[in-house]
């Protein structure tokens, strides 16, 4: 039985072109980019070229790109680094209740350091209202962090409008754009963001490498110490194979974001048409404000752990939400924020997320297996 991987929001398979570039880098680009000899200079050139490509993908200056170990570190650096650097101006932070745990846990840590955090509610579609942000702002607010696309239900947030709201406020504006990267054209100037997080492994690049865009005027405090790399903002010898792989992955989608978006939307339309033949389900989130990469479905009358276990046995690889918390098997904090603590939809939600290799035939096949699994579980429950 062929397996069906529908968990691309957790991670994507490495593209063959990326793998080839990284393989070459592992054997040929072994020099330390900080060394001044020829081998080091060759490596430095590769890092600089990658930084330029990633900056281009964000409409940014290459000097404003900080390489990190991934999205989690970039979020931590953005939030904790900004808060510690600007605490003389105030100690109030605003975020949403549906953020990735890299953001939420950073905020929880800052609360232990004397900061106050406002966790904004969302409506039933998972959207943060502009007025909600406006009402939460105070003269003490130094940071606002709202994700661009939610990683569990795919809700698209009004980042540009929030950026406009904050234009004349002292608060630094950060967005986690990990789930938007490669599918939504990003321009930091249009979005009016000061900090923006991306990572390679969500766009068919390698794990262990990400980036933080930081507007030049914004100051942050480093979280690590021990070197002058990344303009003293993130010390440590650069992950050269990862950076080269990241560059290759970005070059594969750069300029093709809208074409990819249309392709994924077609796949998702087919998927939703098929999944709606299953009785007693709900598709979570507002269809007009949701990424074409993600479809979150509650199969009422079932339980997450049973569904995931049985789908795995049937060769369908999906998740209940963020891969960072999937092992806990607790109800999604995102769905709880949308529907309330005790709503049945929070107990039976499965996230399906789509990838480059998917076809409409795969959409039909996966729903066929899901339908068989759900019907079998419901029969056993009765």
UniProtKB/TrEMBL annotation:
InterPro entries: Aminotrans_V_dom, Aminotrans_V_PyrdxlP_BS, Cysteine_dSase, PyrdxlP-dep_Trfase, PyrdxlP-dep_Trfase_major, PyrdxlP-dep_Trfase_small
Keyword Iron on entry: yes
Cofactor(s) essential for the protein: pyridoxal 5'-phosphate
Catalyzed reactions per annotation: (sulfur carrier)-H + L-cysteine = (sulfur carrier)-SH + L-alanine
GO molecular function: cysteine desulfurase activity; iron-sulfur cluster binding; metal ion binding
Protein name from the UniProt record: cysteine desulfurase
Family per similarity comment: Belongs to the class-V pyridoxal-phosphate-dependent aminotransferase family. NifS/IscS subfamily.
Gene3D superfamilies in the record: 1.10.260.50, Aspartate Aminotransferase, domain 1, Type I PLP-dependent aspartate aminotransferase-like (Major domain)
Pfam families hit by this protein: Aminotran_5 (PF00266)
Keyword terms: Iron, Iron-sulfur, Metal-binding, Pyridoxal phosphate, Transferase
Entry's EC annotation: 2.8.1.7
UniProt domain Aminotransferase class V: residue ranges: 5-361
Parts forming coiled coils: none
